[in-house]
Amino acid sequence: MTAGLWSQLSTRLPRVRRLGGGLPNTLGLVHPGVDGRHLAMRLDLAGYAVSTGAACMAGRGEPSHVALALCGDAALARSFLRVSLGRGTTPELLAGFADACVAAVGALAGAGAVAG
After folding, report:
1. Which of these is catalytic: 3, 14, 56, 88?
2. Whole-prediction pTM value?
3. Is 101 among the catalytic positions?
4. Label partner for 69 (CA 20 to 30 A): which of 18, 77, 82, 87?
5. What is the pLDDT of residues 20-54, one digit of tens each?
6. What does the domain layout of the chain look like in residue ranges?
7. Residues 6+ apart with CB under 8 A from 9
8. Cα–Cα distance between 100 and 71 in angstroms, integer?
């Protein structure tokens, strides 16, 4: 299912990048220039739970060591978003998430909520 979500996001968000790829139910994303914390908050308000780092680093203000390793630098790591899919994830949920993500990135990019 992550392949389908990635296809939807990469088509609609030309700057989005996929990081990692080790887990079939997890998608690591960065959108350069967009603060991952702000993006996660907007997605939460839209009803989607995501994380800005590895599960073991939840709740900390700085980028996780995993995000830093995947991204290569702190500025890009601040835009990191981890999306995990579960058994109950449907194609409709993925489409709704993609819509919410595109809208949130557009709003944040336009509002100047930049990472760094």
Report:
1. 56
2. 0.83
3. no
4. 87
5. 766 788 898 999 889 999 999 999 999 999 988 75
6. 2-111
7. 16, 29, 98, 101, 102
8. 23
